[in-house]
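Researcher: Checking consistency across runs. Here is Neurotransmitter-gated ion-channel ligand-binding domain-containing protein again:
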Amino acid sequence: MEKKRAESPTDCSKAREVYLRVVFLKIGEIDTVQESYQADVIVQAKWREMSLDHSTFKDLDVITSPNLWKPKLQIQNIMKDGKSRISTEVEFNEKREAFIIESRRIHGIFSEHLELYNFPFDIQDLSLLITSELRDTEIILLEDERQLSRINPLGFVDVQEWKLREFIKTTKDVNTFHEIFFRKKKYPTLTFNFAAVRRPGFFIWNIMFIMALITSLSLTTFAVNTSLPQHRLQMTFTLLLTAVAFKFVVAQSLPKIPYLTYLDIHILGCMIMLYLVCVWHGIVTLMGSLTILPTLDIVAVVVFGLIFISFHVIFGIIVYFTTRARMKEIYYAERVYKEKALSVYGESYTKLKRKPLRRNFRNSRVTSSIIP
């Protein structure tokens, strides 16, 4: 049988539809400081190829032809590509219509803009941005609805610091590039998002709890007689310097961001209270001759105690409701993903979740199979 010539891209009267599917086999460390994460990912692209319709197995060597149309996909947010393997295969449906499936297994480091306002109670949306060298008039990137994207929770490494949510959400967008003479070129982009919830226990017990204890110790300086304000100031200054040291420790756990996180607010709030206690002890030196000074000192320690308790109660309420609102969005996304998975896989989806994700790849592998 004579081999059919591959269809040239210029022969297409409309944009090609390319269906994408992503499988996260392994997710490594999520680096907050570098704003990146490591992952082992399979990116599967599927598109219709009419030039291969009704072909036989011997004819499939045409798939290696450089004249065959290709989507020219790129990973936009990849920082460092350790190793990448590509396999290509052709599948036919019942009508012997040909579909080319290109699978890439990528192990690399991916950049991600982290929203750290709620740190260490934050929930991060990690993404994989797939785009093409072809313009939006030549290619359309779509999510593969017949084979859902998946994430392997058993392949998550950073489980001590993060909790991985088992859903993937896609977002379609267009990148616009401006060239000379104000010419615009638009390139399609499909983003695959998954969420990771930070486990805040380390920061709560090792920083926030210790910081609260240090701040509460400032109330014990009022036990020193008002006639010895220099001892009060010495003790309070020591506590304030300890708080500054904790602030430097926190700065090493975060990138250089221009806003305050929840952890910053908590530490700065405690430092402000220590500062106010120091100011009060300085004022005491100017009121040493007043007979009502002991009464004022008792009022001051009560006021500072109420400020300390009120600050932590309000802080806890804000953190609780902010985290709760964000988790509602996560639960909704998981519910939507589960409904979509049940519509595709049926009741077997529950068993599929427990199945390890494995697949062997060979460079330029060409096979033939039938899809329903």
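Researcher: Does this match what you'd expect to see?
Model: One thing to look at in this run: Residues 169 and 246 are 38 Å apart (CA to CA).
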